[in-house]
Amino acid sequence: MTTGPADEAPLVEGLAAEHAAGSHADPAARAAELRALIRYHADRYHRDDAPEIADAEYDALVVELQHLEGSHPELATPDSGSRTVGAAPLAQFVPVRHAVPMMSLDNVFSPKEFHAWGDRVERLAAAVPEVGDGAVRVVCEPKIDGLAVSLRYERGRLVQAATRGDGTTGEDVTANVATIRAIPARLALDPGDVPEVLEVRGEVYLPVSAFEALNRRQAAAGLRRFANPRNSAAGSLRQKDPAVTASRPLSFWAYQIGEVDGGAAGPRGARLGSHAEALELVRRAGLPVNPETRTVDGLAAAYEFCRHWQDHRHDLDYEIDGVVAKVNDLALQRALGATSRAPRWAIAYKFPPEERTTLLEEILVSIGRTGRATPYAKLTPVAVAGSTVEYATLHNEDQVAGKGVRPGDTVIVRKAGDVIPEVVGAVPARRPADSVPWRFPERCPSCASPLVRLDGEADTYCVNLECAAQRVQRLAHFCSRTAMDIEGLGEQRVTQLVAAGMLADVADVYALDARALAPIEGFGELSAANLVAAIESSRSAGLARLLVGLSIRHVGSTVAEQLSVHFADLDALAAADETRLGAVDGVGSVIAQSVHAFFGATRNHAVIEKLRAAGVSFASARHGGSGEGGPAQTLAGRSVVVTGTLEGFTREEAEAAIIARGGKSPGSVSAKTAALVVGADPGAAKTARADALGIPVLDEAGFVRLLETGETG
After folding, report:
1. Is 378 a catalytic residue?
2. Of 122, 150, 146, whose CA–CA distance to 136 is shortest?
3. Homologous superfamily, domain 355-434
4. Cα(588)–Cα(562) distance, rounded to whole angstroms?
5. What confidence tens digit (pLDDT) does each residue in 57-80 have?
6. How confident is the model at residue 6 (pLDDT cuts 50, 70, 90)?
7. d(C-alpha 557, C-alpha 660), whole Å
8. Which one from 143, 350, 403, 686 is the annotated catalytic residue?
9. What CATH class has 468-613?
10. Cα–Cα distance between 162 and 180 in angstroms, integer?
């Protein structure tokens, strides 16, 4: 995901413009309406941990109010949403007044706005010669999507923890914060370095992996799934019972110093001169500071940091929604000052939103190549993460119930990078009064056969093997890039050829000829000839790709590669019993049973014989077509992680090469990882973890050598 041109209106500004372009003839009335909306949604977000609109839509309301008050200064009020911070604290908690206000940050949404902020800072810096020559160093850090808290240490001991609240008064959550392992009860400083009072500010968050595990436990217990890590973290911290907080694996990143008794002190009383030095003090004190934080020279380098993390935000095990840039020099920070709600020396560069709210118009069901019936949402089209989303997956019947969504609901839609859009959950407060729960259909929407949910499984299936929807999906999958890789035979074209009576099963692909194809709508002589050439080339794709293309249940690319290592050809595989199949690494009894059942079905015999007659190769490329064996097992029992883009391998090919040599290719780095292979644009978190653990990091040439010899040196 990359940022568009600097002069292109970002999504948040676009939303603000849409609001402003509406029928708001009376500026005063619209300003009052905006203040009420912002106050309402701020309470839902900050007080109730139950937002009803996505962050981008809230930001758009604030931007519109700022623009309106800029054009009509007389409309601005002290309690305007453009000037206030957070929301008033909940009455159930003891209030805590912050000695130094916990301000918010101003947001920018485009490179143009970011550089405009930088230009203002540099102009002001140039006008304050006693703090420098106008050159600005900037501390950049990922903007954690969590809950801001203040930790007050007196003589090195944690005595109070409080939420931000409205910036002036927060909520006392000391007992709950004490259960967070990342936050020390005592500072790890030498006695001479301990300030009388040290207030550390930071963000409490729930790691993504912990959030996913929490939701799995919720689903297993039949309880409501949580919408996102931020709300889960906030709700977990603001519990009356600290035992509930303790049961949630919350963590913390420190990002700033607040109150310090007697002035900011460094080692042995040396006065702190920069934000980076303050963070180093916090780090030495034993509080976690984000390792991705960087101090850079100038705004161009700061923007490059923003751009990098916009592209790599999902490499981290915590959610970020932007980057925070802060002037490093503390004297310059004091000279720049602050507005009523935010410092002028810091800015939040917000990434394009990955969540939006929209209307769920209808819940439909699609039928896949194995007969699996998957519910999906038809949505009022909405722009999310740089693309327009009209459909989103709902996974299965249990997910629909767990998310609590119904036709007619306002729902939160999420699209993280290139991931398929999904509905996160409903906004119950905006549900129509006549709403009724959705029920899974009893019959297949394609062939009207009964839909069956097997005992112990979450998925529902159409068991009619002649179902037209299954046939199209099986054929499209057979021709796909991960299977036989026949360019020009996508789902739309396959549907057309099935309707024309030219395709009934996957073997019929090899009976297609250019003369018969040319007259069909959308074809011509050249495109028909190109398709036939692609079909011809696929005949020698090899056993692994053929196994993927046959749509055997539970057999994907990884299992297919393992089977192609252990069996010389399709005939040897088909003749194997369940015991022999189950002995293959990564297969096991369930997959073995599925493979054995596939080759035992009479209808599949006929298709396999048609493929043989068509000249499709059944041989394993791992064997050269004869005998069992395969490549030398240079990586037997070892885990190799791949990150970034390699020139000579796709990600699937690299993983297959590792597996073929007896290794494993997990998605994350651990102490058991034998090597990390790094291509272009690698995941920074994986590389940093490998460095910390002393794991060998290899380039592509080193990877090839590793495959051949098993050596990392």
Report:
1. no
2. 122
3. Nucleic acid-binding proteins (2.40.50.140)
4. 12
5. 777 777 787 778 778 878 777 666
6. very low
7. 12
8. 143
9. mainly alpha
10. 14
